[in-house]
Amino acid sequence: MSMATAPTDVRAPARWQDFVQLLKPRVMSLVVFTGLTGLVASGQPVNGFLGAVAILCIAVGAGASGALNMWYDADIDAKMRRTRGRPVPAGRVQGSDAAGLGVVLSLFSVMLMGMALNWLAAGLLAFTIIFYVVVYTMWLKRWTAQNIVIGGLAGALPPVIGWAAATGQAPLNAWLLCAIIFMWTPPHFWALSLYTSEDYAKAGVPMMPVVRGAAYTRGQILAYSLILAPLGVAPAFTGLGGAAYLAVSGLGGLIFLLLAFRLYRSRAGEAADPRRDDGLYDVAAGAKDARNLFAFSILYVALLFATLLVEHLAGLPALELV
Amino acid sequence: MSDPVRESETEAKARRGRNIALAVGLFLFVLLIFVVTIVKLSTGNGAVRTF
Fold this sequence. Notes:
heterodimer, A: 322 residues, mainly alpha, flat, B: 51 residues, 1 helix, 69% helix
């Protein structure tokens, strides 16, 4: 396991936009959204400017993780169609520059979080960056098909960081938000990898469909969805979500389960059977089921957190069902 | 044969862009630290009004 084969010779001058791309802005936006939800849902009054600084630190910490990931994974990225245009494998930015940017921004985000907010939030942010870069990128990703299950913790922690930034504490409700994202990650990524597994196989990344096959992956997606759907409703029972949240999470969970069940019964991720005339059609239909679940999973998590955010910003009462 | 030391127009433009981005980033960093300090001094723990 190494990143020694990463192409680091620079073929075109690096523009400042290439360094922005190293920070994975799209991932950053999701992290900002869930971190903000944690901060607001905590219910603790926070100075607006310091709240914005907390979100900035979470965003920059996520960006730093992205830069370090792109530095280390340049060899893998160069082999995959989806990622070969990234600044390091494309030769626009040197690997050492990407690593330098990642280290500097990591230190900046953690130190600023500690000084401006509190050191519990800073510690959680530091843990998240280290977990994503060392545990996920350097270790799990190339070693086990459970890579995104365990590594998903890094993507699930921002609501806890946001909550801790506001209150200096990380209570059970904060960890409940973390658990929802944690259980959402496997069905989300495996649905995607069912129709992009060729790319991962080419790069030697042991994604679940590559290692255990498509049928096993579809079963795992359904299993995680069965846990996720009730877990998504749980905040309505713990004094965190209100009536709107209960409706959105209940309906969303049912649709999620339905799509996961349809994917389970499909042939998504399987190669076409050359003996059958309709083989090509079958595979296309299966891939559609995987794409449907992947697309809905993004909408589902966005709706859950948006509803919580709106309820808390509008001061709507939470349900006390337990 | 082109001079290997002399940078092309594209390279010069890219370098200028990187320098400006770095200068703006450093300025914003200093400004951010300054404002955080002022806010912390004026609000104590920062918990003064609803986010």
